[in-house]
Design brief:
- There is one protein chain.
- The protein is mainly alpha-helical.
- The protein is built from eight helices and no strands.
- Helix 5 runs antiparallel to helix 6.
- The longest helix is centred in the N-terminal third of the chain and has 36 residues.
- It is elongated, with a radius of gyration of 22 Å.
- The two termini are about 15 Å apart.
Length: about 220
């Protein structure tokens, strides 16, 4: 993405000045600021956390399903459960460690992930079809083997959907709504708000003439 700065340097402005919704509407969508960079980083981390959490739930669910239906396949269900738990822990650690440190983050990195929710959904549908249809065809015989195998068939299909939506649609949603979500994050966390208030009064862009805001 290319950015521009429509405002001359305005140092020493309070955070409330930069968070004003009218100020945000005045600035073009392509303009940059320290707060908008932080919002993008916040969205990236939340997207990663959501993807790890959702995929972890899908794999953990698959592992528990395998444990219940294929007890002898120890390597399969144990691997799925352990990887699922590791991903859930990763999602939780990102939320606990990375999000509170957003004000100290460096400038955001480029991302090739979809930045629009509709694009993420479309990609999730494509991957679900590419992966899910062959799997569904391979285990379609379960539908005629009684209620438990039929339930297992439905569960496998749902877990595939959960995994693909988490990996592709959730990060896209977080990217598209990064500024809104970061504004809400500031409102909910007094420590972050206080840190940003201090930064806004002393901010000087070390790399150019970006202002601290708007968001």
């Amino acid at each position: 993405m290319s950015y521009s700065n429509p405002f001359p340097p305005l140092p020493g402005r309070a955070l409330t000045y930069w968070l004003d919704s009218d100020m945000a509407r005045t600035a073009p969508e392509t303009s940059t600021s320290a707060l908008r960079d932080m919002a993008w980083i916040h969205g990236q981390w939340r997207g990663l956390s959501g993807a790890a959490t959702g995929l972890g739930i899908a794999l953990l669910g698959g592992g528990l399903l395998s444990l219940a239906t294929m007890t002898s396949a120890i390597a399969l269900w144990l691997s799925l459960i352990l990887i699922g738990l590791a991903l859930l822990a990763t999602g939780a650690l990102v939320r606990a460690i990375k999000l509170p440190k957003i004000p100290q983050s460096r400038r955001p990195t480029a991302s090739r992930a979809p930045q629009k929710f509709t694009s993420g959904i479309n990609l999730a549908i494509l991957i679900t079809a590419a992966v899910g249809l062959p799997v569904a065809f391979a285990i379609s015989g379960w539908l005629t083997q009684g209620p438990v195998p039929a339930f297992s068939f439905i569960a496998v299909c749902l877990l595939i959907v959960v995994g693909t939506v988490s990996v592709f649609a959730v990060p896209a949603y977080r990217a598209e709504n990064a500024r809104r979500d970061f504004r809400r994050y500031i409102d909910r966390h007094a420590t972050i708000r206080a840190e940003l208030e201090n930064l806004s009064m002393t901010w000087h862009d070390p790399h150019g003439n970006r202002n601290f805001g708007p968001l």
